[in-house]
Automatic annotation (TrEMBL):
<dbReference type="InterPro" id="IPR036388">
    <property type="entry name" value="WH-like_DNA-bd_sf"/>
</dbReference>
<dbReference type="GO" id="GO:0003677">
    <property type="term" value="F:DNA binding"/>
</dbReference>
<feature type="domain" description="RNA polymerase sigma factor 70 region 4 type 2">
    <location>
        <begin position="140"/>
        <end position="188"/>
    </location>
</feature>
<dbReference type="GO" id="GO:0006352">
    <property type="term" value="P:DNA-templated transcription initiation"/>
</dbReference>
<dbReference type="InterPro" id="IPR013325">
    <property type="entry name" value="RNA_pol_sigma_r2"/>
</dbReference>
<keyword id="KW-0804">Transcription</keyword>
<dbReference type="InterPro" id="IPR007627">
    <property type="entry name" value="RNA_pol_sigma70_r2"/>
</dbReference>
<keyword id="KW-0731">Sigma factor</keyword>
<comment type="similarity">
    <text>Belongs to the sigma-70 factor family. ECF subfamily.</text>
</comment>
<keyword id="KW-0805">Transcription regulation</keyword>
<protein>
    <submittedName>
        <fullName>RNA polymerase subunit sigma-70</fullName>
    </submittedName>
</protein>
<dbReference type="InterPro" id="IPR032710">
    <property type="entry name" value="NTF2-like_dom_sf"/>
</dbReference>
<comment type="subunit">
    <text>Interacts transiently with the RNA polymerase catalytic core formed by RpoA, RpoB, RpoC and RpoZ (2 alpha, 1 beta, 1 beta' and 1 omega subunit) to form the RNA polymerase holoenzyme that can initiate transcription.</text>
</comment>
<dbReference type="InterPro" id="IPR014284">
    <property type="entry name" value="RNA_pol_sigma-70_dom"/>
</dbReference>
<dbReference type="GO" id="GO:0016987">
    <property type="term" value="F:sigma factor activity"/>
</dbReference>
<feature type="domain" description="RNA polymerase sigma-70 region 2">
    <location>
        <begin position="30"/>
        <end position="95"/>
    </location>
</feature>
<dbReference type="Pfam" id="PF08281">
    <property type="entry name" value="Sigma70_r4_2"/>
</dbReference>
Amino acid sequence: MVDAGSLGADEATFVAVVRSGDPARFALLTERHRRELQVHCYRMLANYEDARDMTQETFLRAWNKRESFEGRAALRTWLYRIATNVCLDFLGKRDDRAPVASGLSEPGSEVLYLQPFPDRMLPEDPQESVVARETIELAFIVAVQYLPPRQRAVFILRDVLGWPASQAADVLEVTVASVTSALQRARVTVRGRLPGRRLDWRSPAAHVLSDGERGVVRAYMDAHERNDLDGLRSLLREELRFAMLPELGTVVVSAGDAVDGWVSGGLFQRGRDDWRCVATVVNRMPAAVLYLRAPGGLEYRLFAVAVLHIVGGRIAELTGFDAAGKPWLGLPAAL
């Protein structure tokens, strides 16, 4: 350990806590970084539940490695180093955390393990780079999953968090040249996976929903609760990109075919036509939480989360997440 007097205030306090061996004080000092570390793990893993688990693993590993903190980097950087390597270790042990072939007629793949990230769990400071809307939206998170794990880490550290190449190289224990090369390849891949979307994710970005987006969500929920199929059709762009995770098969369909497909699948038919909806925000995107009451039931039970990408006042992409029968994202199980 270094002399605490030569460190910054946070680092000096951390060194003193480490020397004291007090786990409660250690937790108090590191806990304030939990939310941004959880977002970092989420970008690496695209799965909210995994991100929570790996964030907790980060704190456990930090406690076990506390004596290794030398003060050469800020406490926050040290924690990011641990979180990044926790995620890389996780990915190295799992063969189900990569995009898989879609099975559709056209070439493509799916990120079946994708989960939304509730905005209430984002860091509270809206100026933090870690919460920029363009770098937390589902399309961006999915695009990053096409990068190999270490390339993914380089891209997130450099282009999302804005770290210098030397700092990213230190975290990953590679050369600056390796970081620069990996970043160049990563940028090409991510740009290729975000056609027609904003590509400059490093410039200032919006953090809040527009009034128009909120209005579309209200109209979508109202149409759902009234089983108003014409109303639903009118809210969808003529070409809708639709997925219902974790099922395989993102499709691009017309508005009419989308609604007809939902009906043929049993929605809005007797027994699946008594809805209540709650507006929420996930990944800085508008979303509707759908609750369904079974015939004779006393409660509306959590059914799905519909995340909406709205363009020009209509829904261009609808990503549904099956939430039936499980506690999820801190949402109430019933209404």
